[in-house]
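Support request, please re-run this one:
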Amino acid sequence: NGEGSFNEMKSGSLRYRKTAKIEGTVYKLQVTGRTKAECKAKMKALEDSKKMNITVAGNTITLAELCKKHLQYQIQQKIKVRPKTIDRDECTIRNQIEKYDIGTFQAQSICPYEISEHIDILLMQNSHSTAIKAYNIINSTYRWAILHKILFENPCATVHDSIVAKMKKKEAKKRYYGQVSVLSKREVEILKKEALKTDDEGNYLYNGLGLMTIFTLEVGIRGGETCALRWKDYHSDTKSMDISRSRSVAKNRPDGGSHYLPFDDVLKNYKRRELLLSDEAVDVIEKAKRTRGKVM
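Re-run finished. Output below.
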């Protein structure tokens, strides 16, 4: 076992980190205190609790492990039931928490400054929405842990307002400088020509995919919304289309999560909408009816 290292934090407290091998298992331990003597005393108590296989008020659980336990609890209690939401949270924990240093720290010993510093790193490396998802998971995990008496303090509480303000500033900057890439008229012509290619017998080379691509281009809806369309959603008398769901994929959890299955999900904003179709969009639908009878 090494002696470990001390680091002074901005708050003036000391953080003591140490790698210890106990009963054949290597642990990364961390405590905080006002003096080196206090840190060493806390570290000794933590090591002793490990040797006795005792978990002291959640001190031995890392932030990443705690986030996973919180997500599992939400799944078991059916607090989170949308498969896509569960997959997204798993991905956020894995990529924005577990892969960073903060994910390996004991959850109880993490200070507000470290939470703020982690969000700063995420904002530099990712979009503001990615940072928001990670922060929301961390904050809600601490609140859950306190409610269930696993931990006693939430380091997010004292820096919450500053983090929210920081993320709003990042979002505003993105909107100001944001650029949207659009297809030129020439590129649209090339895409349509390719999508409508046929063989010698007049069958579309891309089957329904080419027509779906052109339809999506004409009406401006999401790809998942196009895939979830049914013939009953189309109203020829009013030349309109009902958009009420979206096709997505998620892990097949009953099968162990090793495969992904498609499913129809609610819309992103939960609001059904009716679109008035252009003549070009109606023409695509009529082509689909004549060629296959059921493309959507």
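Strands lie at 5-8, 14-22, 25-33, 234-235, 240-243, 246-251, 260-265, 273-276. Confidence is low (pLDDT under 50) at residues 53-58.
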